[in-house]
Amino acid sequence: MNEDALAEELRRTVGELVRAVRAVDSMPPGEAAVLGFLDRRGPLTTADLARLRGVTHQSAAKSVKDLGAGGLVRGEQHPDDGRKLLLHVTDAGRARLRRERALRSGALGDAIRDTFDAEERERLREAVALLSRLTDHLTGH
């Protein structure tokens, strides 16, 4: 298999894996994505979130509004532009995100245990290290 065919197979398989793991989510994917970005990157504006997620400003604003109503995010005036809100994940938002991540990790861990023997799990550990290096290359880290 040449590198381009391998790349396509990897893209397809990783996408299917991500979708399968997300099936256990207890919150809408847009909201989970917003919480994840705020948790990893710190305070952001709605425009920042829309750009990072690749969605419209309106879509990001709806997620932010719903999360705000649930006490999972809070906004404050942007220090450089008072017309903008700088969004922060709250302690409740972090706790909710931890629960979502635990659901995903638990489902994936169960599947790994049910599917692979010890030797295959070791090969998977090695593959994860390779995928991590590939991600670092693609993201410039």
Write a concise keyword list for the protein shown above.
141 residues, 6 helices, mainly alpha, globular, 72% helix, 2 strands
Structural summary, described in words:
This protein is 72% helix and 7% strand. By secondary structure, it is mainly alpha-helical. The protein has a two-stranded antiparallel ribbon. The chain starts with a helix and ends with a helix. The mean pLDDT is 95.
Overview in brief:
With 141 residues, the protein is mostly helical.
Outline the secondary-structure elements.
Elements: H1 3-22, H2 29-41, H3 46-53, H4 57-69, E1 73-77, E2 85-89, H5 91-115, H6 118-139
**Could you report the average pLDDT, rounded to the nearest whole number?**
95
Largest sheet: 2 strands, antiparallel
Helical percentage: over 70%
Please report the total strand number as a whole number. 2
The rounded Rg comes to 18 Å
Uncertain regions: pLDDT < 50 for 5+ in a row? Answer: none
* Beta-strand content: 5-15%
